[in-house]
Amino acid sequence: MPHRYPRSKRISDLMKEEISLIIHNELKDPRISGIITTTKVELSQDLSLAKVFLSILDTEERKKEIFQTLAKSKGFIKKLLSTRIEIRKLPDIRFEEDKSLDYQGRIEELLHRKGENQ
Asked: Which helix (H) or strand (E) holds 57?
């Protein structure tokens, strides 16, 4: 039975769900705290790299610390993923900040200001 969407999409969706669970339930590092949302996972065409986009509601200094801690925890996260996702070779993981929420907030702020000026 054919699938409705490509294999890379299925893998990225599964990785997004599992990484979110791992960050919130498995990582015991106190530096990883606050509101952390896994917004999307983008896979390279050859499935060798997964860019994991996170939205973190905190100060810039805390965001930087959280991303550094996650980068150091990458091996542990990959080990857990390998037991949960059946794939021949798990992609390397790179954590990146999802700035789309900041961008969206800025647009809403500009629209609100424009509405006040009219």
From this structure: strand 49-57
CATH topology of domain 7-117: GMP Synthetase; Chain A, domain 3 (3.30.300)
Report pLDDT digits (tens) over 57-112: 888 899 999 999 999 999 999 999 999 998 889 999 999 999 876 666 667 676 77
H helices of the chain, where? 7-21, 60-72, 74-84, 100-117
Range 23-27, long-range pairs (CB < 8 A, 24+ positions): 23/70, 23/77, 26/76, 26/80, 27/73, 27/76, 27/77
* 22 close to 38: Cβ distance less than 8 angstroms: no
Q: Residue 88 corresponds to which tokens in the numbers above?
A: 């021949």
Q: How far apart are CA 62 and CA 56, in angstroms?
A: 9
